């Protein structure tokens, strides 16, 4: 169905090709998963499938890309619209109309599909993706999962043979991600659609993949293979695979279910062991909310939230999209004025403190990291961050080098990949080393390596007496780094306690290791490895 | 009878019908300064809006336009009070302190005597403009401009898409600006500069438009059938001239700036040109339309009601029927029969337009 033949892509003005000598085939009806580090060229590869690279983006493509027998050299993206459905990273950015039904019909209208066929396909797609209840709703009023499903539906109605998705679940909470993956699963199984998808959250998707395409970036060659084979040696791997490698299971399990069946022996071996969790040394209170009520117009985002965050803690804020996580973080830095109640950060009232002094008390990496970046190059950005926060020159750059070692310093921040941009914004805020550090979805678009480095930095900060609050959907990251978890639902704090207590028992928030080893209280592969070490 | 002709079958009325009706009501308002008739027109449009509007976000725009109208009246009255001369009458209400002006401003007076006649005239003039604004507001509330753009003829499709995208981007820019301003605090900066405010917003908007363009390209936008360049140019020229003619005609009809035959002629020529261009342009468009709004009996009735209301007013104005314009500012406004009946016909859409679809529980 898709054939890459010695494809090399070089963007205009770039010294190095973004993709080098890529050859692979994806047969009809397969789900191919594209993996690789942040900024390694996954998006370029996906966009080459429907001809956006090079027709839309510019640059040179050497070699040949064949999709359903059509050569992308001769067909522009719009001429391939009936063969390839494309879903971008941010569904909202790709919407052309304003209601669900119109959005679903849009590509068919462009293709000139007959009205009665259009009508039928829209109804079928609404049912297939479970969107019938929201058919008349405005796109802006949908939840994240509904938006993503609408975007997939909009690409599907023209009955393409190939569906290309760029990180379809990275911005979604676990439940919404399940919805989207279930819908994709149906497409592959029942309709024989060929799906090519890039995703960092391997723990969510690896079990559904028929084929893995690994894009290592740089000069290394792109390689393909079966998921189980690739996972034996892959540098990026979800916890289930790492646990399998640790326990020496063969064949390597990719799903929690397979791993649970293989883990009988491991569970009895670990039966008497308990994970060693060093207790965090708690210091003075750095963040506090009392009866915080926040609303926008006639929507109440937070209804009487009270909490206290102490130095040395890493608090994970979890909950559905729209549960009030960002609102809580924004109130702690004074971006939002509460209707009633108070929020204090490191002893100051964020609403009444001058920004210059405020950044010495609390720092926030917002959901759109680009908002923090003004300079024309990465190097300038680091320099201005040093002077903004009055730290020795070079501090920001050193942090960036630790987080993402390969970010080119002469690039414009907007030209970085989403993950790299996030690393830059993180470095900018971290270099101020504020006592209270808030991170709004810091793992969106980050690969496992960058996540591991972020975890190390956050642990260091906590040990040095900072308090960290991160809102996230990434349960694996929470299991690794958080000492405490708070779950928000509908603007209220529904649970607040130690990480193991809150997430281990929850069907939505339990990390893979906890699911595999239940009822044993282990959360991460590291804990298991350590317990095995002690036992032997 | 086909289902779409039923007046009671719940469905959304064609947005074009709502806009035509509302424009007709605005034409009616433009013919009179009689406060009784103006209030009547306002009441009629307000009643129809409350009877047939949906609960979509834009459906609340009538109230916003009403407030805008009140503001227009207030500004008009205040300015008149400040600049009033005794040219309209002699009933002195009060005297404001007069500000002496230099010689070169002879003929202009700031402050001084304020007469009842001047204020009442300003009130009626402002009222007329306010009522016309409310008519536009009614159209806005009953059918969003976006829906209207969607039913543009095929030849204008590209232009319509551009407008729709612009309509989406404008509010997005405002939210972006707010977010970027908030983020500036996080860098410890207080002063706004072009670099820290406008740049991120503009870059964001640019990024988004590039992404949207990529999405539209991959979804088949612009797959039109090939047409010779000369024909495309001719179509574009006809469309532009036609629109210009329509604009001129409507303006002339609304303002009395030109003789009636000339205005009507310009309007007719414009409509003809535009229709011809669209007929030609349609041939090269190979796209289809999902669930187009039907144009059936209710649409005809709504437009006819508007046309009758406007027609009655225009005829009354041309015939010089007493009561459209007042003899003097302070007389009790008369109630002329023909215009009142005409305006009341404008109520028909409250019944003739089908009710809205309710969500099934």
Task: List strands and helices in order, with pairings.
The complex is a heterodimer of chains A (536) and B (361).
Chain A (H helix, E strand, L loop, with lengths): L1 E9 L8 E8 L4 E5 L6 H8 L2 H4 L4 E8 L2 E2 L12 E4 L3 H4 L5 H12 L3 H14 L15 H13 L5 E5 L7 H18 L2 E5 L3 H4 L5 E4 L8 E3 L1 H7 L5 H9 L8 H7 L1 H6 L15 E12 L2 E12 L3 E5 L6 H8 L7 E6 L9 H4 L3 E4 L12 H11 L6 H9 L14 H13 L5 E5 L7 H16 L3 E5 L3 H7 L2 E6 L2 E7 H6 L7 H6 L7 H11 L1
Parallel strand pairs in A: 3-8, 3-9, 6-7, 7-8, 13-17, 13-18, 15-16, 16-17
Antiparallel strand pairs in A: 1-2, 1-4, 4-5, 9-10, 11-12, 11-14, 18-19
Helix pairs in contact in A: 4-5, 4-6, 6-7, 15-16, 15-17, 16-17
Chain B lengths: L14 H16 L4 H18 L8 H23 L8 E8 L10 E6 H27 L2 H6 L6 H30 L11 H21 L10 H27 L4 H23 L14 H23 L17 H9 L3 H4 L9
Antiparallel strand pairs in B: 1-2
Helix pairs in contact in B: 1-2, 1-4, 1-10, 2-4, 2-11, 3-4, 6-7, 8-9, 10-11
Explain briefly what this protein structure is.
Chain A has 536 residues and is an alpha/beta fold. The longest helix of chain A is centred in the middle third of the chain and has 18 residues, at 174-191. Chain B has a two-stranded antiparallel sheet with strand order 1-2.
